[in-house]
Amino acid sequence: MWTLTGLLTLVWALSLLYGEWFSYMVPSMWTCSWPHRSSSSPNDVSSSDYVKVAVVADPQLMDRTSHSLAPKSLALEIAQFYTDLYMRRAFLSAVLPLNPDVILFMGDYFDGGYILSDEEWHESVGRIRHIFNLDVLRKMSSKKMYFISGNHDIGYAAFNSKNPEIIKRYETEFGARNFKVAIGEFEFIAVDAQTLDGNPEKQITSESWTFLKNAMEGANSNQRVLLTHIPLYRPDWTPCGPHRSSPVINQRIHRAHDQEIVYQNYITEESSKTLLELIKPAMVLSGHDHDLCTVRHMSKHGPIKEHTLGTVSWQQGNLYPSYMLLSARNSTSSSSIVEVTTTEEALLTQICFLPMQTHIYIWYLSLFVMTLVIALFWPANEVRISRKIEAAMSYTSSIFKSLSSKVKEKNEDENCEYEEIWDAEGTMHLIKKTRKISPPAVGGNAVDRGSAVMRANARKGPNTESQTTEHAINVGPVRTSRSRAKMVCWRLLQFLRAILIIAALNLPLYVFLVFKDWI
Question: Which pTM was predicted?
Fold first, then answer.
């Protein structure tokens, strides 16, 4: 049977297996699937009827600008490692197993990307490639990847308009900031949102608006999806739907003395209206906010739904990281079974939540404290669990028995008397006898004290009385300070042995689970 140490070892092993491995597989195995397969449409659909698109937003890799941590400090290195490890596990175990055809990255790949030196930039790019397995995916013809620029990558208009080299090194690694691509029946139009509200006389701003106008001049009849890192304007206190976990943030825009944008969390109202009227999108996808938000914009062409995605990182202020699965109707599908009549049927979305890493670490800490307390204060560290369970059941049973026999015992005690008998060695014994009805005799060696009778039944001799008195004082054993010290040492040794066994079996397991995903 298992001992207490074995039980704690098993609990730790199961916790590590779930927290470091199985929890990342849950989305792709049970809780998340492609929306065209889980939709309530009565018609059957095949895998070729839709293009499967995975959308990932705001990984925002930690660097020397994050959380005011000192560059190259141990705290920063640990935070970087576990944040990168989480996103790599999430991408490899929750996103890729769903076999997407297209992967959209919605910007903010770095935390301070636009102010990093070239050396720091290339180091961060290497981390991004490793986390999302970009080098391998770029060699696969069956998967396409597209990258939208974010404010943490190239800065806002006040910065990037004066530092064109930042734009150049971004485009060298991730491609054009403004582009159009056909995915299924839809045209996905990506725009560099950081430049839209800049000075229209500056080249970087005029380039973005010129691209949008040119893209629409040669546009075909396909419906469009607008991709922008910064969300479109929404009135203050606009509700964001049931998946929002943080308070709604109202619009904030800060400009420099030359009216260039220094910070903004939404595109201005004027630019948002122009985008909606120019692009006429069926849907808008955005990021930047780090939390989920679904709103409807009203335009001349009808309501337009915008999905703002949450961050994929657990270190960016959101306890519930997530990503999106999007199914876009395939224009090349040869199936005639499915007849799509509305945009909502042709463009389906599903939000997928990733493991709550903060809660996992809280459970580890709680389990660590419980392990210390149980191993140190449990009456016997190696007592068998089955005996403890049996004792608990026996104790519960005795409570019911005691309640039923309480009255009977009380009546029996009233008809009994106890005699104190001293043997030849001077040890006292209590003997229970039935009380006599007749009154006690006067005289003799017996002395009545209530219902107890004291009688000297020791060996005869002149020192009988003194021996009896001496032994009556030492009724029970007295624990010495030496025995207490031995008990404490024994308990500490048992505690250390239990902790060492638990650590010896689970630390290798933890190291294996960590590095199997990182390498």
Answer: 0.79
